[in-house]
Amino acid sequence: MPKDIQKELVDLVTHCLTELGWLANFSEKISLEFPTDNRFGDFSTNIALKLSKLLKRSPQALAAELVVYLQREITKSKLTALVTQVKVEGVGFINFYLKENYFYEKLKLIITQGKEALSSNAGGGRKVLIEFVSANPTGALSVAHARQAVVGDCLANVLSFIGFDVKREYYLNDEGNQINILGASVNLRLKELNGQNLEFPENYYQGDYIYDIAKLADSQKIKDADLGNFAAGYILKIIKQELIDFGVKFDCWYSQKDLAKSGKVGQAFEQLKKKGFLYEQDGALWFKSTEFGDDKDRVIIKSDGAQTYLAPDIAYHEDKFNRGFSWLINLWGPDHHGYINRIKASLEAFGHKKDDLSVVIVQLATIFRNGQEIQMSTRRGQYITLREVLDEVGADAARFFFLMRRTSSHLDFDLEVAKKQSAENPVFYVQYAHARICSILRSSAAQITDDLDLSVLKEKEELNLIKKLLEFNTTLNICRVTCDPYMLTVYLQELSESFHKFYDLHRVLDQDKALTCARLALIKGVKIVISCGLELLGITQPEKM
RNA sequence: GCCCCUGUAGCGCAAUGGAUAGCGCAUUAGCCUCCGGAGCUAAUGGUACAGGUUCGACUCCUGUCAGGGGCACCA
């Protein structure tokens, strides 16, 4: 039983093509796909279509010739035990048909090894740092942060599962202008509480929570100069608790204040200066980011002597590499998209590759309540927080909802819809499949015995279900390539659908003992995969609902 | 003005450049003596517009139109 039949078939195709001499000027990857419809076999390759132009022959003719080679090679190899047919179909696709035994063996592996059989070492232990949320500690988390939190958390789960060494980090903006404004806001509210009637500037933090902090600061006799830090610390505690309640964990809270104290910012500047990427103009210090494709050069030290946000950020990203990470993933809001080129430029200035950093722009989520949009603004304080969403719809539904759309797309989130415990809310569809399986397993007196014979699973729905299970790993790889875990939610819905269809047509607990045993094994396999998928999404796997 | 995201069935959304574009809601007609009907089976309905690349385009490129977001020596 080959470990990875997909790879073996690709190797085989490559071997035959080399023998035919067709690969001479061909540089593309030879791919093997799951056909859209299982009428077209179990694996499919479009290589004849790809080679058609290069070799100036019709795809069908090429495919026909290649198939003869493939069949001969298969007969000679171990694959002959697993492959029933290789055929040219359609416009020139070459389709591989596998023996059912292959699928039975795969299912058996899932049942006996559990989640072990689903994981992989695709990542090869590569050290990855995912930085996400990183919201300023100047107010509670908004829904935009919530979406980032879930996407980042889930992406980290998936990457760990397929063999990456992943750490999650929150970059904490605990000094600078925004903290000063926060402190000033508290100070002003404090004076207001003490009876002074002062004008409250528009760019100050307007939310009611500032009053709460002011009262607390007053009772603890916090000095005016410390108000900013005091408020930030207070808010950070709230943020941390919200994230915990949302099931989002961080390995590291990276403090900008500590970074500033460490001298790493100055060291980074020194290096850039040596390389000739810094210059002075108009009294400010500039980074020559245009060298690396940015639209314009960027200021890192303003003419008044203060650093811009970019300054510590450049040092911060370089520090990530110095800590041993070779792949950085940043989740940013859409307001940061203009920022990508600057940071990538700084990476390149230090000698790293552009692709060592993947920036995922997490588009905004718009929250509706009964079709009415809820505006969000931290300053104005009229915003819906992660806490409110959690209280209303629960962590499971909220997480699934945030993950249901491609991360780069806008997301409309109606609280009333998410609250409905109905089919409109797909998380219940998936959890229901899981609970249903658990219920069958509970009510069954029969056991999966050692003489389990899966070959009695002959029905179309049974084989479809097994094949669907095997797509789990492919799905996780798509998540890795796209840096987007949302495909997993799509997959789980499809798998649940395959299960519900099977369930409706065939009884698991049958008169026939052997068949019952095999079907119990089948649904146990489905349970393992659904459970594993939900776990990666950070969603509970209820045995009863 | 420049940049990013999005236009797919009445509504909400799918579709690693592949074969007959899928699913839910809604509407209509069915399926529980029996493992959970929060389920299943059908019917209806289709890629904003104009070019281009490709053997093949919802997918990539150019333009147009429409919606959302962003464009500081702020963070």
3D structure, described in words:
This protein is an alpha/beta fold and 545 residues long. Among the domains are: 5-98, Gyrase A, domain 2 (2-Layer Sandwich), CATH 3.30.1360.70; 104-122 and 423-537, Isoleucyl-tRNA Synthetase, Domain 1 (Orthogonal Bundle). 50% of the residues lie in helices and 12% in strands. It is built from 20 helices and 14 strands. It has helices spanning 5-20, 47-55, 59-76, 100-113, 143-161, 177-193, 209-219, 227-245, 256-262, 264-275, 310-322, 340-349, 386-393, 395-403, 415-419, 426-443, 460-470, 472-482, 486-505, 513-537; strands at residues 43-45, 83-89, 93-98, 127-131, 165-172, 252-255, 278-281, 284-287, 298-301, 327-332, 357-361, 365-369, 372-374, 411-414. It has a 5-stranded parallel beta sheet, sandwiched between helices. It has a 3-stranded antiparallel beta sheet with strand order 1-3-2. A 3-stranded antiparallel beta sheet has the order 7-8-9. Strand 7 and strand 8 form a beta hairpin. Helix 2 packs across helix 3 (59-76). The longest helix has 25 residues, at 513-537. The radius of gyration is 29 Å and the shape is globular. The protein starts with a helix and ends in an 8-residue tail after the last helix. The model is unreliable at 377-381 (pLDDT under 50).
